[in-house]
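wait is this the right file?? whatever heres the structure
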């Protein structure tokens, strides 16, 4: 678990929890930010550690699936 170092240079896609507008941040950026500016609702949206873990886990599984 945790925020995988090997996703630092990968663009991670996630949905705004308020409006479901898709947002993209690099893993290195996502690991450090506490908020992001949503392009859909233009709100400053708080992103929690458990949410980050879920985003990283989703992309880790997707990356593993692509290798098989
Ligand atoms: Zn939004």
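ok assuming it is, sequence goes like this
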């Amino acid at each position: 678990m945790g925020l995988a170092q090997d996703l630092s240079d990968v663009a991670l896609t996630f949905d705004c929890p308020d409006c479901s507008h898709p947002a993209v941040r690099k893993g290195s950026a996502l690991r450090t930010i506490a908020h992001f500016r949503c392009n859909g609702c233009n709100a400053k949206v708080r992103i929690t550690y458990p949410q980050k873990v879920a985003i990283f886990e989703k992309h880790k599984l997707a990356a593993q699936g692509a290798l098989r």
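The first helix runs from residue 27 to 32. so i think its the right one actually
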